Amino acid sequence: MITVVLADDHPLVRRGLRAVLEAEEDIEVLAEAGDGLDALAQVERHRPHVLVIDLAMPRMTGVEAARRAGELPAPPRVVMLSMHADEPYVLDALRAGALAYVLKDSGADELVRAVRSAARGERYLSATLTQRALDAYAERGRQEGDAPHEALTAREREVLLLVAQGLSNGEIAARLHLGATTVKTHVGRILDKLELRDRVQAVVLAYESALVRPGLSA
């Protein structure tokens, strides 16, 4: 069971988010908070696996709360909720230790996927952000000549796109009618060829290298 503390300063929003999460058999919301300081207090009290917190919170921002939560003896994995798709907001959240960044206009399935990914220790970004970053990466390659992703086979590029959409190896295997071991091999080769550290490092590198620029928000 994945345990969650949910923090948002709008009670109606919290109620909706809680309904989405508790509709899943493997997720339990232990407590709610209406500001950043209370979110930290609830995390210390309940020690959840995941903290789902809005970026813009009173008394303490979601970014600062994420940073301080990471210093606790039993730190939760953090899923940051935000209405902002701009590069600086995303980078601030990732640098503060958030594993997932979900836009508030995303579907309910994205929030659930983000919570599960974070609970596994995996990064997750909303599909809008991952697709935009990959598009920018490809555009840079066209402008500069041979792009690193051109070294990938057609199948590897297909797998990369699905990884960017947040699908697990099992989900990719089902989508492409491949064995799970085969998908794992493809992902390993992708990471090696692109010199990436994890499944979504292409996205993180795109932001860190300013391949995705402010002004590309939804």
Write up what this structure looks like.
- Strands 2-1-3-4-5-6 form a 6-stranded parallel beta sheet, sandwiched between helices.
- The longest helix is centred in the middle third of the chain and has 18 residues, at 127-144.
- Helix 7 (154-164) packs across helix 9 (180-193) and helix 8 packs across helix 9.
- The radius of gyration is 18 Å and the shape is globular.
- With 218 residues, it is of the alpha/beta class.
- The chain folds into 2 domains: 2-125, Rossmann fold (3-Layer(aba) Sandwich), CATH 3.40.50; 129-208, Orthogonal Bundle (Arc Repressor Mutant, subunit A).
- It has helices at 11-22, 36-46, 62-69, 87-95, 108-119, 127-144, 154-164, 169-176, 180-193, 201-208, and strands at 2-7, 27-33, 50-54, 77-82, 100-103, 124-125.
- CATH H-level name of the largest domain... which superfamily? Response regulator
SS field, number of helical segments: 10
Look at the structure and give the mean pLDDT: 82
Going by CATH, the architecture of the largest domain would be 3-Layer(aba) Sandwich
CATH topology of the largest domain: Rossmann fold
Q: Tell me about the biggest sheet?
A: 6 strands, parallel
- How many domains, in number, for the residues? 2
* Oligomerization state: single chain
The rounded Rg comes to: 18 Å
